[in-house]
Amino acid sequence: MSKLTLSLLSALFFVTIAISQDLPTDYLPADFHKERRDAVREKLPPNTAVVLFANAERNRANDVDYVYHQDPNFYYLTGYKEPNAVLVIFSEKQTDANGNTFDEIFYVQERNARAEQWTGKRLGVKGVKEKLGFNAVYNGSEFENFPLDFTSFDNVSFVDFHNDYRDKSGSADLFDLIKTFKIKANYPSDYNPIRNSLYKRIASANADNSNEVVETIERYLERYEELQDDEILNDFVEANDDEIRDEIKNKVLVIQRSTNLDSSILPKVMAELRQDKTPGEMKLLKKAIEISAVGQIEVMKAMHPNMSEAEIQGVHEYVYKRYGAEYEGYPSIVGGGHNGCILHYIENNKTKVGDDLVLMDLGAEYHGYTADVTRTIPANGKFSPEQKAIYDIVYNAQEAGIAASVVGASFGEPHKAALEVVTQGLMDLGIIKDAKEARTYFPHGTSHYLGLDVHDAGTYQAFKPNQVITVEPGIYIPENSDCDEKWWGIAVRIEDDILIREDGPINLSGMAPRTTEAIEEVMKQPSPLDSFKLPKLD
Ligand code: GLY
Ligand code: MN
Ligand code: MN
Fold first, then answer.
1. Does 110 sit in the ligand 1 pocket, CB within 6 Å?
2. What is the pLDDT of residues 328-354, one digit of tens each?
3. How far apart are CA 74 and CA 86, in angstroms?
4. Which of 8, 234, 256, 413 yields a CA-CA distance of 20 to 30 A from 330?
């Protein structure tokens, strides 16, 4: 080999290394996703196939789509970030005509040089085998003719479709994959997953739990118009003795034997798995939360009354990007004054926040895991007596909620504790006269799981170690509320991300100040943005 060739090769080697070093290296490894698929398999009833689809691509306008985001269940089980893919997991090993065995099949987006020039690299079959560690990988176009007999399983479990995907040109897009699945699995045109799961509840009802089943059915009948004429559901609700209930149960069993489709196993299995975070997941989730807490601190330093809601949002999101967070886990909420009373206010278009409180509920998404942190701060750096009075109630409510977030407590405990403090506080200030009125000013829950989704999958049962929840009480007093005018327009939410541990709750977002004193202190600090001047535009 000539000297020149050698030096060219070594230059290429270093360029390759340099390029690969420019990419993040802390994604969850293929082994994590593989181990999670094994965990799913362990929870499945015998002879079950689960079928998961990649998220749909969604159109923003004309020929522009929204930035693609993978379905969190799909990402959890594959690490695959592209659309137009199907994953099938089997509870037991299957054998093909050639005697090869497999317990999962992954159909992925085909490589296409022209498409990749416009929208970016695809892994393709080879890349998925090499990088994501799957063995049985095929192009999506092979799904249709693949000898896969869904009718031979006792359960074919999937998350039902929301019918919010488009048929794009070209073959093997999500539309085609779902169409193929429906044909292969004998999916009836009137399939209703909720009816299906209520029938399941009836089939397993007994003398001890039939009242509970009736209550569940009643709740669903009230909520879902399309179920209201269902004879079986109505008959079960009206049945007044066990004999009639048994007759209905038998009818349901006959109907159930006619289909193996199921939409209740998979969400339950995923909730059970996703609510308990592994150490690898915790690393990413903690990072997302700490990034978001730093965002709050930087905004506290930069805040002044002439700032717009959008600029405040921009500062948070800039901090996220500086740390390598790809997205926000949900549209950022920045509400000055009474805008904070709109719980999920995302217009963020007030041009000056003035002397009001600013409610900032934002979360960085880092490698799929999202934070959810809220701070409410006075734009001018000092809480007014009224603002402080409301703030302190919410703070004490949050403290009570966090203290109640302990292993073994039921999921509702933090809310119960927080609501009690808010109720007493509002009574003491004369804002309400009756405890029942507290919900007018504190109209939401206090906690949800956090993870790949901001409102993450979980069973909402008693707390276990390594679960992460939010504790987020709030008080919102819109204009024209039935109380003294001096409270109008005050909206406060404080939201932290709490890790449940054997030795007590840990506040993962605690780095961002929460007391009025600590917030006022940080707001006195200079910000690098103080000297960031831009030219005036017409
Ligand atoms: N940011 C949405 C929530 O707090 O639940
Ligand atoms: Mn939340
Ligand atoms: Mn939030």
1. no
2. 999 999 999 999 999 999 999 999 999
3. 9
4. 413
Confidence of residue 94 (pLDDT cuts 50, 70, 90): very high
In sequence order, what are the residues at sequence separation of 6 or more whose Cβ sits closer than 8 angstroms to the Cβ of residue 381? 303, 520, 523, 524
In this prediction, residue 325 has a pLDDT band, given cuts at 50, 70 and 90, of very high
Q: Ligand 3: distance of its center to the CA of 396 in Å?
A: 18
Alpha carbons 394 and 286: distance in angstroms, whole number = 24
**What is the Cα–Cα distance from 407 to 501, expressed in whole angstroms?**
7
Instruction: Decide: 361 in ligand 1 pocket, CB within 6 A.
Output: yes
Which residue in 291, 290, 330, 283 sits closest to 508, CA to CA? 290
| Ligand 1 lined by 496 (C-beta under 6 Å) | no
Specify whether the CB–CB gap between 269 and 44 falls below 8 A: yes
**Are the CB atoms for 156 and 51 separated by under 8 Å?**
yes
Residue pair 328/313 in contact by the 8 Å Cβ criterion: no
pLDDT per position as a tens digit, 147-165: 999 999 999 999 988 888 8
Q: How many CB atoms lie within 10 A of CB 59?
A: 12
Ligand 1 atom 5: the closest Cα is on which residue? 455
Nearest CA residue ID for atom 3, ligand 1: 372
The number of the ligand 1 atom at minimal distance from the alpha carbon of 363 is 1
* Ligand 1 and 495: CB distance under 6 A: yes
**Residue 125 phi, psi dihedral angles, 5° rounding:** -60, -45
Q: Residue 361 Cα, ligand 1 centroid: separation in angstroms? A: 7
Write the pLDDT tens digit of every residue in 33-55. Answer: 999 999 999 999 999 999 999 99
d(CA 103, CA 181): 18
**In angstroms, rounded to a whole number, what is the distance separating the alpha carbons of residues 7 and 431?**
78
Closest ligand to residue 374's CA? 3
Mutation test of ligand 1: which of 296, 328, 330, 334 has the most ligand atoms closer than 8 Å to its C-beta?
330
The ligand placed nearest to the CA atom of residue 471 is: 2
Radius of gyration in angstroms for the set of CA atoms belonging to the chain, rounded to a whole number: 27
- Among residues 256, 37, 281, 299, the alpha carbon closest in space to that of 154 is found at 256
Regarding the beta carbon of 445 and ligand 1, being less than 6 Å apart is answered: no
Q: Closest residue (by CA) to atom 4 of ligand 1?
A: 372
Distances (CA, A) of 474 to 70, 140, 390: 31, 47, 9
Q: Per-residue confidence at 14, pLDDT binned at 50, 70, 90?
A: very low
Q: Is 330 in the pocket of ligand 1 (CB under 6 A)?
A: yes
Mean pLDDT of 135-147: 96
Contacts 24+ apart (CB under 8 A), 504-508: 504/406, 505/402, 505/403, 505/405, 505/406, 507/402, 508/285, 508/286, 508/289, 508/290, 508/468
Ligand 2 centre to CA of 471 (Å) is: 7
Residue 414 has pLDDT above 60, yes or no: yes
